[in-house]
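Subgroup meeting minutes
Present: P.N., E.W., G.H.
Scribe: E.W.

1. P.N. recapped why we're keeping a running log of single-chain structure predictions: easier to compare across weeks, and new members can see raw inputs and outputs side by side.
2. G.H. added today's entry (257 aa).
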Amino acid sequence: MDRKIFATLRNKDQAKPPKRDFDLSENIYGAKTAKQYYNTFHWIHFVFKYKFFVPLVLLANNLFGKHLIKEIPDKPQFEHLQIFDDAYEEAMEKWYTIYIRGRGRYDKRMTKKEALKNYKNDQVLRVLKQFVTTVCAYDTAYLEFLPFFEHAIQRRMNEYNKRNHLMYTHSGIFDARYFALYDVLKKNSNLKHFKIVNVGVQRTGGKKNVRTNEEHCPSNEGHNQSGTNQTSNSKSKATNKRNTRTKPSKTRKRNQR
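Output recorded in log:
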């Protein structure tokens, strides 16, 4: 059996269940109590994911990998299948280089080169894609499901793209800024740009977790490199800075000669 399967099965939960139950504030999982949060997190990650789902995908790849389609045939009937394949790969690459690379402590983040390497070596997500493309390529009923699916996604995304997307990049489940900013973005759908701003120092496990300024990027790209996305109109700020710089007059130049 593949080493990756054994490595996945050996994953263990280092956290211990809470000794006493208590109510939780608003969190990304929507858990009401501490025990509910722990039980849900433990079952999803260390039972379903690491003991069933991921090992099953890797095992299926070992058994049937040679029969899976790796490249979409260049045929007119596979145009929608090629769109699905290209979009899937693009999403994987951006997910690794933007979201995965931007999580966690600023001084311990992977480089873009490391992120691209992980993207190319991701077997689980790529095998799942190959399962879909293989079934669709050899089953005309499922092949014709893809155009319906892609057009439905396109219609809904055209409406969704009128708003900004806020990525959750905090290492824990409690990030009050996320919920506060989500309401702001929802009410101010006309904001065209966002920027990562300095949100101070957060203590995590006794260590300082510094959130730093990152580059400005368009909202529909979802580029998040450090903390929770925050909105701002950076163009107006840049304009204000330029306006504050006064140019020397022609008279002053002549007097200096």
